[in-house]
Amino acid sequence: xxxxxxxxxxxxxxxxxxxxxxxxxxxxxxxxxxxxxxxxxxxxxxxxxxxxxxxxxxxxxxxxxxxxxxxxxxxxxxxxxxxxxxxxxxxxxxxxxxxxxxxxxxxxxxxxxxxxxxxxxxxxxxxxxxxxxxxxxxxxxxxxxxxxxxxxxxxxxxxxxxxxxxxxxxxxxxxxxxxxxxxxxxxxxxxxxxxxxxxxxxxxxxxxxxxxxxxxxxxxxxxxxxxxxxxxxxxxxxxxxxxxxxxxxxxxxxxxxxxxxxxxxxxxxxxxxxxxxxxxxxxxxxxxxxxxxxxxxxxxxxxxxxxxxxxxxxxxxxxxxxxxxxxxxxxxxxxxxxxxxxxxxxxxxxxxxxxxxxxxxxxxxxxxxxxxxxxxxxxxxxxxxxxxxxxxxxxxxxxxxxxxxxxxxxxxxxxxxxxxxxxxxxxxxxxxxxxxxxxxxxxxxxxxxxxxxxxxxxxxxxxxxxxxxxxxxxxxxxxxxxxxxxxxxxxxxxxxxxxxxxxxxxxxxxxxxxxxxxxxxxxxxxxxxxxxxxxxxxxxxxxxxxxxxxxxxxxxxxxxxxxxx
Length: 565
Known about the structure:
The protein has 565 residues and is an alpha/beta fold. Helices cover 53% and strands 10% of the residues. It has helices spanning 3-17, 43-50, 54-64, 88-97, 133-148, 165-176, 180-183, 187-200, 202-217, 220-244, 256-259, 263-272, 305-319, 334-346, 382-398, 405-425, 437-440, 448-464, 478-488, 490-500, 503-523, 533-556; strands at 27-29, 38-40, 71-77, 81-86, 114-118, 152-156, 276-279, 282-285, 294-297, 324-330, 355-361, 364-365, 433-434. The strands form 4 sheets. The protein has a 4-stranded antiparallel beta sheet with strand order 1-2-4-3. The protein has a 4-stranded parallel beta sheet with strand order 6-5-10-11, sandwiched between helices. It has a 3-stranded antiparallel beta sheet with strand order 7-8-9. Helix 2 (43-50) packs across helix 3 and helix 18 (448-464) packs antiparallel against helix 22 (533-556). The protein is globular.
């Protein structure tokens, strides 16, 4: 339900009828219930343009506002704000209409885009660690959200599978023979052993360097070993994705090796556009305002990350024909993406109409405010973190003694993984955040468990009620008004989150929804015998609709609901 769009149309018509010309209409949520449901704050700007008293203009406008359908009342507040209350009858009718809608009232965007979302980006020489968590789940949420709204989303997983270290790794894999596959189960240790061998043996080091050249030249034997290494490495990633319910697949991988044949063309394009400058033998691009060049090709002929990213941008813009290209990458890469985006547009590798975004995120910190590490200072493997989340979730809920062992395992997995994901998604992605098991596995506050518990509580209502669910929602008091209103704000919330690429917009909405529902649950008895049948049915239907929105919101975030906790 695009309520803000409907209100903008009504306000625009009122302004036209008042002979006031403007197309700059922004409807905002009211900050408190006593200020209405929504506010129009544009009168102050109009007053300056018209050189009139803002309250007089606001009074003139509200006389022209149509209050026969969606709006219950309007009033002038403060220096010239217009407060807007929606009609209880309209809210009730709209909420009733979406009771059986699997999309809970959310439509599709009017102008769908083809969107590439680049995220996760694991290193093929190591197991995924906590540093890959934020990119993986933020990126997957944004991709899922854009998809849900009707966009054509192409997921892309840019992996590093090309470079000098791979000669060393496949040479060591070959040397291991039949034991190689078994040893690859611990990629960290395999890399360390290969590096030690490289440092200690000149013969092995020379062989590794030769293999780099052979890989680049397409030698079948070396490519076979290289592919085996990549396949086993990707299997590790897929195990993590499955546990996280991240939708990336093998088909979404676009590795450095994919772009390697395109790199000479990148240099040629930049050369033809007059953007390249020779600097100490290297081919560079100097951008306005910076004395530090972007190196595209080194003096020895080697390429850099910028070259590969330019090839990737051109491929996504011209071959995939994307309208919007999103890179969900660490905030520390901000300057790099700013540079390659600028170069790609200057060189006409990407049309100016294509939206390029670096969806930056901060660092996950431990309770002392330092980057998350193991006790001995090592990198925390992501699979170990997720396993611990499930164990801790089981400890949190097993004392409630409401599940069989089989149920407990399933519920603990949903709660543990959900807790890790929600804790990350619930803060502004650009911020660093403190990782806290106690906070993320709490039944109180803005946590996944709070959302899952609310959903389960609604489920318990319907396990007690065995009648038919059929009837009309009735808005009978202020708390029901607020609950129906926030339910109908779901579409506007998702549109805002998709435009700004901010998953925390959705989690904030869910927290507000559940908080209002809990007040409704406490103040308005649902199953008491002395409640009038139509009121009881209305409260049941409002509860059902709330559960539907919670489930859909968590589904977009990649988090499971549970029937009981």
